[in-house]
Amino acid sequence: MSASVSLPPAQRRSRGRPRKTADERDDGNRRQLLLRAAAGLFRQQGFAGTSTRDIAAAAGMQPGSPFYHFENKEALLAAVMTEGMERATRHQAAAMQAAADAALQAGRVLGARDCLQVLVRSHFDVLLGPESDFIPVMLYEWRSISAPQREAVNRLRSGYEAAWVPVLQALHAQGALQGDPSLARLMIFGALNWAVQWYDPTRRATLDDLTHAALQLFLKEPA
């Protein structure tokens, strides 16, 4: 039986686009620069009012640079939304883990009310905290992406919201949350997300204050 012979990497013929030079291999950072620049501009100027030239300039790149990373402006918008949901999911998971660890060190169990407080505070972080342009862009520009792109982002959003479901169900079972938990979840997200329209950190309450007010609104006080 004859053995197949593979050419060493240096002798293999490359196909398609030529390999990038060492200076061009920093794709991850360049992509992140474009995403942050696009998120900021899409939020400030709207999707229709922002050009790829604007985005490239804000990222400190050449006018054609966005097209090396994204097929078109719509694909860049969808990537901003995807990035926003992925960031939100990571932030939420880290916040819940930190709260659980702190409770364990204090010798107690994290209750459902505590969990909702962490979830609400984390959500305000991704909506209103540092680098918070991504999720508002998703809220403002949802209709500007295609149906397949919306489906992909919706899968991420469903995963993000899934962490809230058992918490709300537990609160409902305890009598702290009135009404159907599924409807309550939709109403809660609607109320929290609207904060991007009116919140002003220089004139209004802190994010901790917002969290406290939200819990007072959504939950019955413990007996």
Written overview of the protein:
This protein is mainly alpha-helical and 223 residues long. The chain has a domain at 77-218: Orthogonal Bundle (Tetracycline Repressor, domain 2), CATH 1.10.357. The protein has eleven helices and no strands. It has helices at residues 27-45, 52-58, 66-69, 73-105, 112-128, 134-140, 147-162, 165-174, 181-193, 195-198, 207-218. It is elongated. The chain starts with 26 loop residues before the first helix and ends in a 5-residue tail after the last helix. The relative contact order is 0.10.
Could you name the CATH topology of the domain at 77-218? Answer: Tetracycline Repressor, domain 2
Mean pLDDT: 88
Q: Which structural category do the helix and sheet elements fall into?
A: mainly alpha
SSE succession: HHHHHHHHHHH
Write a concise synopsis of the structure shown.
The protein is mainly α and 223 residues long. It has helices at 27-45, 52-58, 66-69, 73-105, 112-128, 134-140, 147-162, 165-174, 181-193, 195-198, 207-218.
Labels describing this entry:
223 residues; mainly alpha; Tetracycline Repressor, domain 2; 11 helices; elongated
Write the layout of secondary structure elements.
Blueprint: H1 27-45, H2 52-58, H3 66-69, H4 73-105, H5 112-128, H6 134-140, H7 147-162, H8 165-174, H9 181-193, H10 195-198, H11 207-218
Helix pairs in contact: 1-2, 1-4, 1-6, 4-5, 4-6, 4-7, 5-8, 5-11, 8-9
